[in-house]
Sequence to fold (298 residues):
Amino acid sequence: MSLPTVPFGRTGLTVTRLGMGGFPFGGTNAAAGWNPFTPEGRATAIATIRRGLELGVNYFDTAPGYGDGNSESIYGEALEGVTAPYTLATKCPWSGVGAAEVIGSVEASLRRLRREAVDVVQFHGGMFTEADARHILQNGPLDGLAKLREQGKVRFLGFTCEEPFTALPLLASGAFDVVQLRYNLLNHQAAEHALPKAKEANVGVAVMRPMTSGILQRILRYLAPEWIAARDPYEVCLGFVLSDPRVHTALVGARWPQEVERNVRFVSTFTPPLDLSAVPLRTAGIYQEEDRQAAGRS
Fold:
């Protein structure tokens, strides 16, 4: 198995199209028997990360907010001493803080990660108002990350965004090398605005929640269980994201090594059957595309 890789925007990095999200190492799931805060759960999490490395995954994402630093500390232990090339991304706060707080947060992350520097630091965001964007750009948070970059503690600057339309002012600023967007089969609004702008700016694009966080699977269990019997929605969801060439890496959370193995197996063998970036986004465009296809068959 060999994972496909792509250039990560203008960063100069090359990333695997499958990345590993770090939330599972900071959250419990009693129904599934998952608790990364126990010695046994921590050992499993470390084994999962190392299995990803063995199979070629080279992009890992975490945050101090995942289990109050637990996810970062697990990554720190799992990756300590690793010489194989990989990219590690974490996050920092921006709301109600200035440069000093941003610097303090990242330095605390570095201690948990057992590193002197981290590849990517992202402002950990969900939805940004215009005032939020101004605060980040003008009131200290961006200055804090810029200072850390000058000190060699951060290589690339980014931000995360659940509501992709609100990412536009930050993308337009030119200050960021990386953006992490929510983009999946249920939430595909990023295709209309944020993804085109990110491509135009040559920004590295990571995608959060590519598997819909299990929401689609839950819906199908009630509305269309026959779909699940006919085709695994897991494959449909991951295939959807990987069919968009504007996406560089899809961050899929994994708890157990066998989950990583399944993810790698699928991504290594998947060939996109279409280019989602060329799919019409309006009814008129869909009609026109159907008419063109019909004319080609006649």
In short: Residues 212 and 282 are 23 Å apart (CA to CA). The domain at 5-297 is CATH 3.20.20.100 (TIM Barrel).
